[in-house]
């Protein structure tokens, strides 16, 4: 037993929160140095699902001519049916609140079945085009399946797949590379509006689900997606639409979004939302300042401006650290 645990247990005894007998039992148990392998086993199961689904993809790619399309689709369908059959047989059914399963394998087989369903629909559409040229419909079907599985099997990993599919349905790619490049927003200006609407809808869904107490532990995932989607869309629009005179609308959206996520991060005690909210708000403020300063002639005070700039960034870093410390104190209180 480490020194910190010993001191913590001793303090409970000193405050009469536990008896001397309980203190001795806790000390004896901790001296056994027993540790749980639950997290490690779940990590191995998760990696096995990823490796298996990746292997299926590689198998299809390398043997697409020799195996045949019908054989590949049939194999995928059989594996999907087996995964979902086992999951439905051993699950407790749909529950409004957070659910734990007696068989931890159910969670990962449901994830494997959902990923393979996406592969199956995508491969079927690519090879035989049962939906014609309507690729959004081909995206929508596995998205609906993923949402159903996420709520039925209470699976957060499947929920991320479902939200990603929903974003793809409106034409938005949420891969890290595309988010950093913002290529989608520049190619299609209306996509910024669609992304903001999607983010707002995700927020509204968390509010509604909280009222009816429907899988409230999913709210953090929805809010994380909403924060990134709205912030990236508004920041890219601040850069793109400034010359058209409507940049202030996106600035208002970013301010409103930052205020909302500031409040909700405190309510949920979610430091991840708080940190990214600060980062996005800081980027938006700097874009706004650069645009304002760009319209002012700084030729006479340019040297002074260059000297102040390092101080500004150092002060920003210090302020960021103080905000994080203050947040941690507030949620710990």
TrEMBL record:
Name recorded for this polypeptide: DUF2157 domain-containing protein
Say which domain of life the source belongs to: Bacteria
Which positions fall inside the DUF2157 domain? Answer: 12-158
Q: Which residues cross the membrane?
A: 43-61, 67-88, 108-128, 134-153, 158-175, 190-208, 220-238, 244-262, 271-289, 301-321
The reply to whether Transmembrane helix figures as a keyword in the UniProt entry is: yes
Q: Which UniProt keywords apply?
A: Membrane, Transmembrane, Transmembrane helix
Keyword Transmembrane helix included in the entry's annotation: yes
């Amino acid at each position: 037993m480490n020194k910190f645990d010993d001191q913590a247990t001793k303090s409970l005894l000193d405050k009469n929160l536990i008896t001397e007998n309980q203190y001795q039992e806790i000390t004896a148990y901790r001296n056994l140095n027993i540790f749980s392998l639950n997290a490690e086993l779940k990590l191995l199961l998760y990696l096995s699902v990823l490796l298996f689904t990746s292997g299926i993809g590689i198998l299809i790619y390398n043997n697409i001519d020799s195996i045949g399309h019908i054989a590949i689709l049939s194999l995928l369908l059989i594996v999907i049916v087996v995964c979902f059959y086992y999951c439905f047989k051993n699950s407790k059914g749909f529950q409004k609140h957070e659910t734990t399963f007696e068989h931890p394998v159910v969670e990962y087989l449901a994830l494997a079945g959902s990923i393979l369903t996406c592969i199956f629909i995508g491969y079927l559409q690519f090879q035989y085009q049962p939906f014609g040229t309507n690729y959004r419909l081909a995206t929508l079907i596995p998205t609906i399946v993923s949402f159903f599985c996420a709520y039925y099997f209470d699976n957060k990993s499947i929920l991320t797949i479902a939200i990603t599919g929903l974003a793809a349905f409106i034409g938005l790619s949420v891969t890290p590379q595309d988010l950093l490049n913002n290529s989608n927003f520049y190619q299609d200006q209306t996509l910024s509006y669609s992304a903001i609407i999607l983010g707002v809808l995700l927020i509204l869904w968390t509010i509604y689900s909280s009222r009816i107490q429907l899988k409230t532990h999913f709210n953090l995932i929805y809010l994380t997606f909403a924060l990134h989607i709205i912030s990236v869309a508004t920041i890219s629009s601040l850069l793109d639409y400034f010359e058209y005179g409507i940049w202030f609308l996106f600035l208002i959206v970013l301010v409103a979004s930052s205020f909302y996520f500031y409040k909700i991060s405190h309510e949920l005690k979610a430091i991840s939302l708080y940190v990214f909210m600060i980062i996005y708000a800081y980027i938006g403020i700097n874009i706004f300042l650069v645009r304002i300063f760009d319209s002012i002639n700084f030729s006479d005070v340019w040297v002074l401006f260059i000297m102040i700039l390092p101080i500004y960034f150092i002060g920003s870093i210090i302020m960021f650290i103080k905000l994080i410390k203050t947040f941690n104190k507030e949620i710990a209180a």
